[in-house]
Structures are given as C-alpha cells and as structure tokens.
Amino acid sequence: MAKTVLKSLLLLVLCGVLQTARAAKDRPNVLLIVTDDQGIGDFGFMGNDTVKTPNLDRLAEQSAHFTNFVVAPACSPTRSSLMTGRNHMKAGVWGVGPRNNLMRDEILMPQYFKSNGYGTGYFGKGDGVGLLELKPWDRGCDEAEYPWGYDHLDPRMITPEGVIEREGWTCDINVDFALDYIRRQGDQPWWCTVAYIIPHLPWEPPETYAEYYRKQGCSERLAAVYGSITQMDDATGHLLRELEKMGHIEDTIIVFLSDNGPSYKDMTEEEIESRNSLELRGTKATAWDNGIRVPLLVRWPGTIEPGPRPQFASVEDILPTLADLTGLDPAKFPEHHPWDGVSLRSALQDPDSAEIERTVFRVAISGEGAAGGARAVVNHPDEVSMREQHVTLRGPRFKYHNYADGSSELFDLDADPGETVDVSDEFPEIAARYAAELEDKYEAILDTGRAYRMPWLKVGRYRPGYNKLNSVMAQKIYGDLKGVGFHYLKGFAQPGDRAEYAIEVVRGGEYTATMDGKQLDHGGGWMLRFGDTEVRPETTTPQKVTFPPFTLGEGRQTMTLTVEGSGEQRDPPLVQKIYLAPPR
Asked: For this protein, what is the EC number (predicted)?
C-alpha cells in the first residue's frame, strides 16, 4: 500500500514537472534586433535602390511592418524607452553622454521577462540597460556584454569579468555570443537582444563591402556607410539562419528596429539624397520625422500575419506589446513605474484594426532648441521653459512643433510627410488642442522631478562605475562655465566659476582626489569643497591636479569644484574627469 502511494506521488510530481516544462516550451521566445543610426531611407525595403539589405528585406516580407512608427531622436533616449516602456524623459534620460541618466529605480525589459521564468541575454550597445555602477547583469540580464565605445573591429567588451579584448568585427561578435547563449537555453523560453553599434560612425566596414559600392559609382563616404549597413545585414542574416537551424525560427517573436534617424556628417547633398529616399526633414538628434521615424518589424509565424500596419506606434509600445503577446503575468513583475506605451496586439492580429488615437512627446536633444544650450547643464529644471526648446507632439496624422524662438507649426503628415506646409490655419482646432496637450505632457514630465537631471555618482568601492565623475555630470554650474561636447567643462578662470556634483558616499573614510583635463594650470586656484571641508591641490600640471587626503562621511552630499582667483580667461582650463579614490 505504501509503495503504491509513493508511486502515485512520484507520478504526480513527474506529471507536474512535464506540464511545467511543456508550458515553458509553449511560450514564445523573443529576439530583439536594434541597429544604430540607420535612417528610414537606409533599407532596400524602404525604397533605397542602392543599398543592399537582402536579409532585412526578407524579414520585412515575413513581418508585420509598422510604417508609421517613431522612436526618439538619439540612441540613449530610444533604448531607454525601449527597455522601460516609458517616455525617456520620465526615465531620466534627456540626451546622450552624461545626459543618459537612466534612473536606478527604473525596471527594465529583461527584469520583467526574468520574473516570468525567461532566460535573458543581452549582447551589444550598453545604452538603455545600465548606468555607472549598474550594469546589464545588475538589471535583469543572465548574460550580457557590451562594447566600450564605437570600435567596429577588435572591440573592448565590458563583461562581468571585466574588460576583455575580443578579435573580429563587433557586429559578428554580438551575433556569435547571442547564438551561443540561445543554444544553451534548452527548453527554457528566452529573451535575447542583439543591439548593434553599426552603422553608427565611424563608417569603417571591411574593404570588400565598401569596394562593392565604389564599383556601383558611390562616393567614398557613401560606400563606407552603405558598406557598413550591408555588413550589418549579413550579420543579421547569419543570426536568422542559425536560429532556423536550431528550430527556433517558428517559435520566436522577432522584433527589429533602428534607434533613430541617420547621421549625415560630412555628406554632400547628393549623398544625402541617396539615403533620404522618403524625402523627410531633419536628421538624428532632431525632432523632425527623419530623426525619429524608422521601420518596426514584428515576425511571429502562424500568429502574426505579414504585411503593412499603418497604425501609429511608438518605441514605448514594444515592452507592453511583448508582455502581452508572451502572456507575462503582471502579478510577478517587480514594482515599477507606469508604462506610457500600449500593446499593439490589435494591430498585429488585424491589419485593418482601428487606429488608437493618441500622441507622443518628442524633443530635440542637441543643437538649436535643445535644453541647456551651449552650457550643457540645466541648473533648475522647473525654469526650463518649453518655449525655449524645440518640442513636438506627434500623433497618427498630425504633428505640432513648438520652436525655440516661440513660434509653432502644425503639419498634416498624411498629405505632407516632409513637414513643409504649416496647416495651423486650416485646422485651428487641432492646432489649439495639440498645443494644449503638448503643454500638459511637458508639465507632467517636469512634475516627475526626473527630467534634466545629471546622475548621482556613488563613491567608496573599487568597482566599475564608482568613484569617477565626468565633469559635465554637474547638477549645477555657475559663472562662465559651459560644456564642451560630452566630456569637458570649460572655464574655471575667475572667482564665481564653480560646478556642483551630487555624490553618494557608501563607505566613509580617508579619500584622495585627482582631476584630469587640459590647460589645468590656467585655472585660478583650484579648490574642492565637501560641506565645510575645503581641499586645495598638492600639485598642478597642465593635464592633472592632485589633491591631498581628506575625510568623507557616508551619505549623499554635494561636491563643489571651484577656483579662488583669476586664471587664463583667454585660454581657460578644460576639466574632463574627477576621481575620488576611496580608502583601501
């Protein structure tokens, strides 16, 4: 009798295990593919007859293709919205470089999938999945690595084990590591992202790719960018073929997008014309449609019918859509901020489904109309008027622009996708409604207290992401200071020039500090201040300033960098990095 009961219990347990395994296997996998700076005109399937993208063209034929899909104007904003399902400004990201302040309390896409039993792998660009001391493996990724900068050949990869120098083309390395990860997942459903840094500058493809385009009569610049795109397309083709060999091509939802519009750096009008097949206005970093409109492809054989989807969609929709399609259980999610995106399930299931009437907020992130201007730092976010910026409200048909000079325009994108004819007088009610809604959305973003802020730096541990400040990460700057690119603060040549930084000391004790930059000996007498503690240099050279030991207590506090006298105002210092070395 006891043996019979034991056998019955074992059978029940075994059946439960098999049912759980079967249920896990029945859930679709997810493969996200994201390219970098690939404009809407940089695809064969979007009407560019010169560039060769046969693998993406084939994927487009097999996918639902959202033709009215928008992202943000640059990589960090788009990728943060992709991973959070939220407007990037609410997530703390208001640009690139030090403005990529992805808040530490944001919950990212891999965390949602991991909470529901998915394996999670991420291979490629690090924007949107980490910040400072928080790396992808701290934010939901079982396995991950990302390149340091934009080395397309022999990259330095950031891994949990440290920086590893790899040999080969970065796009191929991303694909190979993703495939290796997928092969090891067995019956466990998986979520995996391949986030290329190609075709971001510099355009340096293998010679064979560039040579093909030279023979087609392309200029050196055009051959380089098109060669890079075709190189990426070949890497994607390899990824998809290997996925098919593994038997995963039918049970995987494949999502493809680019992160923003094209860069036309140093290109002639003729070269730009070749890439801008839809004749849209603007470039990467602008709020015009050529800066934010890209293709979105979603493939799931047997469930999603291929073909065009004219319904309006935005990058914030991808997380809610994938959570819906894969049946993730919200009860298992970590506590998170509300999503701004919506599920696109209805449009995916029915190409003729009704349009969801809604709008999205977009803002120029550099150049004219960008917050902070030449100073690069916003001291008081509530004092940044919407009227000083180029911000837009984008809907399915209409788009309203608020310009930095205080003027505004309304465009009918159905009739005028190039945004050339103001129709405010023709549609005054829509112009008024969009203007009011834009104001409301902007105020709601400011009310979060998360926009236009630089990151807090944690100090006190000898780990990546701690102890090192980029000078432009200042919370506030005063006097004649201004940012230079993403890396330098220029000034510190007269009393009153100062920068304030937010730091969190996780381990108190005796610290030392060094500062790197250029022409640092032109400063007017450097000083670091931590509350009542003032620290003056031991040594100063053109490239480095060294400070003597000082004591810091634990907790959040303000660090001020300033000068006490006058220096070389015609050739002032450029401060790049500040290092706070904690006690050993």
From this structure: 3.1.6.1
Domains, the chain, in order of start with CATH, read: 13-356 (3.40.720.10), 361-447 (3.30.1120.10), 457-581 (2.60.120.260)
pLDDT in tens, 31-80: 999 999 999 999 999 999 999 999 999 999 999 999 999 999 999 999 99
Reported in sequence order, the residue ranges of 290-374 that DSSP labels E, i.e. its strands, are 296-299, 307-314, 360-363
| Distance, CA of 453 to CA of 22 (rounded, Å) | 47
Instruction: Give 339's DSSP letter.
Output: P
State how far the alpha carbon of 308 is from the alpha carbons of 57, 138, 222, 562, in Å: 13, 38, 29, 57
User: Token pair of 265, please?
Assistant: 């750096």
Q: Record the pTM.
A: 0.94
Decide: 451 and 441 in contact? Cβ < 8 Å.
no
Q: Is 280 exposed, middle or buried (0-12, 13-18, 19+ CB in 10 A)?
A: buried
Question: Using one digit for the tens of pLDDT, what is the confidence trace for 234-249?
Answer: 999 999 999 999 999 9
387: tokens are 């009227």
DSSP state of 448: T
Residues in the chain: 584
DSSP 141: -
Please give, one letter per residue, the 3-state secondary structure of 554-566. CEEEEEEEEECCC
SS3 442: helix
**What is the distance between the alpha carbons of residues 475 and 467, in angstroms, rounded to a whole number?**
16
Check residue 375 and give its pLDDT: 73
Q: How far apart are CA 241 and CA 249, in angstroms?
A: 8
